[in-house]
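Data availability (excerpt). All sequences and predicted token strings are deposited with the supplementary files. A representative entry, Endonuclease/exonuclease/phosphatase domain-containing protein, is shown inline so that the format can be inspected without opening the archive.
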Amino acid sequence: SIRCKMPQLSFVLASFAYRLIVLTETWLTDSDTDAYLIGGSPDPVIISTFSSSLLEACVIDIHFNFSTSLPYRKLRIFAVYRSPSSPPSAFTSFLDFITPLMTSQFPCILIGDFNYPQVDWISMTSSTISDLIDFACDHYLKQFVCFPTRLQNFLDLVFCNFDIISNISPSVPLSDHLSLVFDLRIPSPPLHSPTPSRLYKYADWLSINSVILSHDWTVAMSALDANCAYEYYVQFINDLLDYYVPLSKPSLLSRYPRNLKILYGKCKNLVRNAPNSLACLRMTDRFNAALNNYHCFMECRIVASSNPKAFYNLCSDRLKAPKATPSGLVDSSGNVLITNDEKCIAFSSFFSSAFSVPQHSPLPLPSPKFTFDIPTVSHLDILCALRSVLPKINVSPDRIPSIVLTKCKYSLLTPLSIIFNKSLLTSQLYRVQLLHGTLYLNPQYSYTLNHFVTLSAPNPLLSSPSLLLKHGLIYDLYPSLAHS
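Structure token line:
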């Protein structure tokens, strides 16, 4: 079952080497339906499925919306698994099922594990099995696999009625059968290259601070309102970051350790040179064992880290267990959790024990004052606020993470003070970021706003709660706490 091969499948997906992956012998049921399988480019559409005694099949159409040079606009794939113990009547029913789905108007690919070692696929002859050979001849299907896929047997096959399959070769197996890799002679869809990220640990902070300090912000922002000044500031800082911060180079299998990549490379070489040799089987077993150990290590580390988001992502695929299998969730006492109520109680118990924090009674709040003068924001006020920012590489709408504010807090005092004061001294609605829910305007007073208002303007400092500042729009005035 594919449920036992998830580490191997995750490794294959992480390589980004394949446009299409066909899995057989999954034994998935209706409860395993995944809506995210429908979509993307090209667009796959499930046409039909078939299940009989120890035989399963799925029929999928792939539509080509990205190319107009082909005489056809889709291809149809039949993914098949037939157990060696499946009765002949089941395969006869399967052929009756796919016969009306076969067509000569577009390519039809019949692929899977058929488990017919009696057939000589080089000469297309067999003394006992004739149904599949007759079906292939009647629908002009050519069989492309010319090497044994398990020991000396041709069990995994690829048929097609168009000459679009090329470069078929063995690959690292996910089970005791070799995997098959081949190319399709059709235009490739547009590439979706991953967006590189900034490597702030290699940033040239000395040059960034030097350029910011040497820039005349007063002259540059003198004729700008608060919004335009902030947009100018964001553009200037991002241009600096693009120039002085290197970008990551996406690499295949980057999240896996080096020893796994080495073992996988050795497996590929052995599969290419001696696909069914004893050395290839042993190396594949070593790779699978190391991969399973790595996934077990990662799961144990996630559980031990007490990270609720990572823990939930780890277990989310087990919350809705298939009807034919147990839940897979086991509590600390060894009890298997079946119902959703039992799972919820287990999650609640885990989170309450791992992430509980002492509760403090709220401090009494003084009566709000509705009349006051908004002072200007000094460099000292901004510096006190920036000192409380943690140097994180967080995602923000303006692409300026908090690590930039901590590394450049002294050089950013001038532009930030200009922006803050412009927003305070004009009637223009402007969105100013709170630090820990409070914006310190001077050492004596801090202002908080009970009602957060969402605007489309970006945040000048961080990305969590926002404060809408305008004359007379600050609701509560509290004595400021001592700044650290």
